[in-house]
Amino acid sequence: MLLLYVIVVLVTLFLGIKRYKYLKQFQNINGPPALPIIGNYLFMMRNLKNIDIFNEFPAKYGKTVKMFTGLRLSLLTTDVKFLEIVMNSSNLINKSDDYIMMFNRWLGDGLLISSGDKWRSRRKILTPAFHYKILEDFIEVFESRGKFLVDNLLKASSEDCVNVHTIVSLYTLDVICDTAMGTAVNVQCNPNNKYMKAIKTMQDIAIVRFLNPFYRNKWIYKFTNLYKTEMKALEIITSFSLGIIEKRRKFLESHHSDDENKYDEFGKRRKMTFMDILLKSTINGKLLTNEEIREEVDTFLFEGHDTTSAAISFTCYNLSKNPEVQKLAYEEICHVLPTDRAVTITDLQNLKYLEMVIKESLRLYPSVVFHGRVVGKEFLYNGTKLPKDLMININQYTLHRDPVEFPDPEKFDPLRFTAEKQSKRHPLAYIPFSAGHRNCIGQKFAMLELKSAIAKVLKHFELLPVPGYKPVLISKVTLTSENGICVKLKPRSA
Questions:
Q1: Secondary structure (3-state) at 137
Q2: Residue stretches of the chain with pLDDT short of 50
Q3: Pfam families in the record, alphabetically (predicted)?
Q4: What is the rounded distance in angstroms from the CA atom of residue 465 to the CA atom of residue 318?
Q5: Is 8 exposed, middle or buried (0-12, 13-18, 19+ CB in 10 A)?
Q6: What is the DSSP string of 387-405?
Q7: Predicted pLDDT of residue 23
Q8: Do 64 and 75 touch, CB atoms closer than 8 A?
Q9: Closest Cα partner for 304 from 441, 165, 459?
Q10: Where are the beta strands (DSSP E) in 220-369?
């Protein structure tokens, strides 16, 4: 008993000294009071309230705040001057350990969580996947999948409150599977698809692990039922992806002519998919393995599915609350988009006002609320030494509501994004697709998909607000709403 008492005292003393060292080192940076051992962990666990809590931090503690996750110190910032370093320094390109803990088994060393030379080489070979000519081919996918989206919305339009996020998420998964892998999953016609369910399971488990300190420990986690559930979902996802990759690799190997490669086994001209580029790419003279390709395809699917569905859904919500904005967007769509031919990439690019609407919606409801970076090498900032392995988190939700950069920040005003007004703002005051070295490689793809989907919705429906409804924001892997993202759909007359 005495020995146990001594051990407890020594451990407590050690932890206290460690905490004191950090507090002294970062005495120039304020932050909320931290509890012994767990620090500010309770803030993180309250994910139904932590957006509001963190949104109040700049007024209480300043634009850069120190917080403790257990004993580990991290900084939470909305300071654009600090962001200049965080986003642009080659010393800060590694993602935080949280990404690795949540997604490593699923996404492996894919672009989201890889670092160093591996990240650089993968980024280099993936960049051509978003070339203009390839994006041009994807418009047909957006449009064809958009027809199913309209059909599903029409079926739900008799309801007084439609959770558009549920319907839109099926559309974005269809699109991403078709463009990334060249494979039709057709979840819009079959929402109970086991692949769709497995992806949702993996996303749900990721946030549970992030919020629960016991599940964060990899040794404890492996003995839980949640781990078993993850392994089953992971098997469904990986076997599906690897099966498609192997089939496509064999097809490419058996067709050596570039002309032949332009056509599939049914004689239809093939579009170049994300996976095709990976299958033909080499690093140091070696082709990527099926597993390496799977990591990148699944990363693209993960990053381009939920984020895009949230952006489309919140834009619909904002349009329902702002009828004058919706009217202008609808008039532009009717004027710009053709009725006598297929929509082209140029048509979508010419939807200038709709683009401003989308940007303003992403300002108020960024798909990813927090971005995390890890210091790779100690450096000095404003007289404070930032040690190696320090986590730096960007609070994007609050950054986008800075009243200096965005006067009357809660007002929905697309005209904030005229060229003139954008030129007067700090370039890092608005970063819905992150920025710097690790900005979103697929942001042009995302904007085209958003325009295509929202234009389809507005052409067929007037979006009306649901009386008494307000989204209850919750920070999961992406920003979403606990009570859905809801509107009333009024079909337009033909």
A1: helix
A2: 8-9, 11-12, 257, 259-261, 265-267
A3: p450
A4: 9
A5: exposed
A6: -TT-EEEEEHHHHTT-TTT
A7: 63
A8: yes
A9: 441
A10: 282-283, 286-287
Q: Cα(350)–Cα(332) distance, rounded to whole angstroms?
A: 9
Cβ atoms of 129 and 180 closer than 8 Å: no
pLDDT in tens, 38-55: 788 777 776 667 788 889
Q: Residue 157's pLDDT is what?
A: 95
Q: Residue 32 in contact with residue 67, Cβ under 8 Å? A: yes
Nearest to 31 by CA among 62, 55, 82, 66: 66
First CA to last CA across the chain, in angstroms?
82
Dist CA 50 CA 20 (whole Å): 26
Tokens 């709403």 sit at which residue? 481
**Burial of 47 (C-beta count, 10 Å sphere; 0-12/13-18/19+):** middle
pLDDT tens, residue by residue, 314-328: 999 999 999 999 999
Q: Which domains does the chain have, with CATH numbers?
A: 108-367+400-491 (1.10.630.10)
- Number of Cβ atoms within 10 Å of the Cβ of 58: 20
